[in-house]
Amino acid sequence: MTIGRLRPLLPYILLAPGVAWLAVFFVVPMYTLARQSLNDGTLETGFRFAWEWANYSDVVDRYQEQFIRSFRYAATATVLAFIIGYPLAYAIAFRGGRMKSYLLFLVVLPFFTTYLIRTLAWQTILSDQGDVLTTLRDIGVMDITDSLGISQNGRVLATPTAVVMAITYNFLPFMVLPCYVSLERIDRRLIEAAHDLYGGPVRAFLRVVFPLSLPGVFAGSLLTFIPAVGDFINAEILGGPKTQMIGNVIQSRFLEVNDYPGAAALSFILMAAILVAVLVYARLLGTEELA
Amino acid sequence: MRFVARHLLTAYATLALLYLFLPIFVVVLFSFNDVEGRFNFVWQGFTLRHWAHPFKDPALRDSMLLSLRVAAISTVIATVLGTLVAFAMTRYRFIGAPAANLLILLPLTTPEIVMGASLLTLFLTLNIATGFTTIVIAHVMFNISYVVVTVRARLRSFDWTLEEAAMDLGANEFQTFRKVTLPLIFPGILAGALLAFALSLDDFVITLFNSGQEVTFPLYVWGAARTAAPPQINVIGSMILLVAIGGIILSFLLQRRRV
């Protein structure tokens, strides 16, 4: 068996099936989605390609609120995931010792149950008649959270709190793992040097450890934020009419109302908005070269 | 001061882990709930009857079987295609490599709902009825990238001079791959395949768009959640968790033996 003459082509032969699959079922669909977004007509009359840019302005007008809400929820959830996840990653990386891989295993373990089942579990925990809320109501905690705006009329379900909290939960490992990887990689001698130079552990952390872990924070934030913006499961199961996100709109326009052009236009606006958000974020964090 | 800081961090990390496990605890606990009425929200007493009859609803059983079939087929295809791509990208330098890399990374950074919707527009345009085949196509599509990334991580630390050594000893390219390269990168391929299998079993959004009349397990849960979710869902969820724990413990043990 000689591969001699084929050798220069070998990488392309190996790539071909996988790349072809992605070209046909990922790239081409983006094109058909783009075309769909410029169609006019309805399911009954049939869709015709008509450069119908009005689809875009129409959906922006109608669903501005859901767009803004999606970005607000996703941004809040990303910040919360950082606040919860970064110290956890730090503790595992620097205090984990020989338990490191077991602790990481514990972090990902909950995510082996089905996404929907996990989210339904939150519905059980937060349900109005559930034991948690009943207890909190009895000891008066719900009055305090009500006045803080965290809950509404003694309820958590159907409030932004429930949706944001569940989004935070569901995407937490995407924050923890990249943060862990970049914290773990830091040369311990640098930290010793920082202690020698700056003295206090806080300044050593702020000047050395944290800046060196920024690539992980950057990757973790994107991996949390991007799926969070497009999510609709949490809002559907734990939210109410006033917590609808853009994913809920795309889903219902597409699969329930069969307004394919509108849903397609919404999808493209969502992707463009995410791209802008990511670029702004990269600028702010000064890690463009990492993106 | 440092003592306090140290223990504060440990306490905080422990709380974070508890937060991660709270819903899992609830999933397992409520699989034993002696539920009356439609809603499995309030604890009403201990029973083993849901565990005794996890597939009481035939629709639940069928959905699980469908999910396993989809996961098995799409995992095999995605693993083969993804491994070939990972191999090409780490072993060879070639024109177009950055473009191929971009194509692999894009699906990882596209919201699922956009991928699901766009794939459906393709099937609508081509007048292809959605069903079993389209679900498999979709799952292979989003899994290829995960397999490539996982296998590539393993290949990056692979010592390619081992291949040269094998060829110096008289092995041809095919023999070298089968007897030297493949056994050494196999753990990476296995990790990629397991990830693909888990993602396929769990996928809801992309499947929702491309499933037609077929109902996978996550779609069954979705439908049930809108009316009344039977406690059997918790049983299946706990079972999946047990299988995952078993698998991971096994991989820990295997790793220890190798080292």
- State the total count of DSSP E strands of chain B: 0
H/I helix tally of chain A: 12
- Percent of residues in β-strands of chain B: under 5%
Radius of gyration of chain B: 23 Å
- How much helix, percentage-wise, in residues of chain A? over 70%
Nearest-integer average pLDDT of chain B? 89
Structure classification of chain B: mainly alpha
Gyration radius from CA atoms of chain A, angstroms: 24 Å
- Biggest interface pair, residues each? A-B, 79 and 88 residues
* Oligomerization: heterodimer
What are the low-pLDDT stretches of chain A, counting only 5+ consecutive residues below 50?
none
Distance between the termini of chain B: 40 Å
Give a topology summary:
The complex is a heterodimer of chains A (291) and B (259).
Chain A: H1 10-36, E1 39-40, E2 48-49, H2 54-95, H3 100-108, H4 115-126, H5 131-138, H6 141-148, H7 160-185, H8 188-198, H9 201-230, H10 233-238, H11 246-256, H12 260-285
Antiparallel strand pairs in A: 1-2
Helix pairs in contact in A: 1-12, 2-7, 2-9, 2-12, 7-9, 8-9, 9-12, 11-12
Chain B: H1 2-30, H2 49-52, H3 58-91, H4 97-109, H5 112-125, H6 132-156, H7 161-168, H8 173-202, H9 205-210, H10 217-226, H11 232-258
Task: Please give a structural write-up.
The complex is a heterodimer of chains A (291) and B (259). With 291 residues, chain A is mostly helical. Chain A has twelve helices and two strands. Chain A has helices at residues 10-36, 54-95, 100-108, 115-126, 131-138, 141-148, 160-185, 188-198, 201-230, 233-238, 246-256, 260-285, and strands at 39-40, 48-49. In chain A, a hairpin with a 7-residue loop joins strand 1 and strand 2. In chain A, helix 2 packs across helix 7 and helix 8 packs across helix 9 (201-230). The longest helix of chain A is centred in the N-terminal third of the chain and has 42 residues, at 54-95. The two termini of chain A are 43 Å apart. Chain B has 259 residues and is mainly alpha-helical. Chain B contains eleven helices and no strands. In chain B, helix 4 packs across helix 6 (132-156), helix 6 (132-156) packs across helix 8 and helix 7 packs antiparallel against helix 8 (173-202). Chain B is globular. The two termini of chain B are 40 Å apart. In chain B, 41% of the residues are buried.
